[in-house]
Design a protein that fits this description.
Layout (H helix, E strand, L loop, with lengths): L11 H7 L4 H8 L6 H13 L24 E4 L8 H4 L7 H12 L20 E4 L13 H18 L5 E5 L1 H13 L16 E4 L7 E6 L4 H4 L6 H14 L4
Parallel strand pairs: 1-2, 1-3, 3-5
Antiparallel strand pairs: 4-5
Keywords: 4Fe-4S, DNA damage, DNA repair, Glycosidase, Hydrolase, Iron, Iron-sulfur, Metal-binding
Pfam family, one: UDG
Organism: Streptomyces smaragdinus
């Protein structure tokens, strides 16, 4: 068997994701990835310099794995960790205002044990839901490049493959996540129709598979401050999508 490529190789995600047999193993491997030099430099520099409000904290400063049970029926796909949110705390959508909005809505819909997500050891549990992203490192200006997205894709494809026995619905937050999720879903065994479904808030399509159950795919505006502060995405709008997805996933 050929040796695994080094963590800084562009081949690292493909090889290490493909050979992961469980989600805990996949999550652990993700945290060691250094395949995208620009992202590695940015996430580590941010962890060294820190934001003044968090100057006394030890930043995570590594790729952030998915969060939630291995037998989730509903997956939520975002964009990438925030520099002073998940890049600081080490958990998806934890420690920033986007997470405040998302977890409050999940709690209101009975999908999370509490409405806040402050740090990795705060006791938060998700009920039948797993949260992940197409890019696992915090990017400058919250904008991964297409190349970084593609290099990171094997992690998402492997995660969806490992969730395939139980997952029945996916909510994608934002157009970037939508475009990244479609090829990952194809790689995980679902058939994406042609022409490809177009992203929009409230978009809904059903993907079929020869080897897995049908998958309900939902679009939702991202929970970024740009959307939530302007009213483009309200808590009621977010809850409505989560409610429909939970029902499609059999969590209602």
């Amino acid at each position: 068997m050929a040796p695994a490529p080094p963590s800084g190789s562009p081949a690292f995600p493909e090889h290490r994701a493909r050979t992961a047999r469980t989600l805990p193993v996949l999550d652990e491997r993700i945290t060691h990835c250094r395949a995208c030099p620009r992202l590695v430099e940015w996430r580590e520099e941010t962890a060294r310099v820190k934001r003044r409000a968090f100057a006394g904290e030890d930043y995570w400063g590594r790729p952030v794995p998915g969060f939630g049970p291995s037998d989730a029926r509903l997956a939520i796909i975002g964009l990438a960790p925030a520099a002073h949110g998940a890049n600081r705390t080490g958990r998806m959508f934890t420690g920033d205002r986007s997470g405040d909005v998302l977890y409050a809505a999940l709690h209101a819909e009975g999908l999370a044990s509490q409405p806040t997500s402050v740090r990795r050891d705060d006791g938060l549990e998700l009920y039948g839901v797993r949260i992940t992203a197409p890019v696992h490192c915090a990017p400058p200006a919250n904008k991964p490049t297409p190349g970084e997205r593609d290099t990171c894709r094997p992690w998402l494809a492997a995660e969806l493959t490992l969730l395939r026995p139980t997952v029945r619905a996916v909510v994608v937050l934002g157009a970037f996540g939508w475009q990244a999720a479609l090829p990952a879903l194809t790689a995980a065994g679902w058939e994406v129709p042609r022409p490809r479904p177009v992203f929009g808030h409230g978009a809904h399509t059903v993907l079929t598979s020869a080897t897995a159950s049908d998958l309900h795919l939902f679009g939702c505006y991202h929970v970024s401050q740009q959307n939530t502060f302007t009213g483009r995405l309200t808590p009621a709008m977010l809850r409505a999508v989560l409610r429909d997805a939970a029902r499609a996933a059999g969590l209602r």
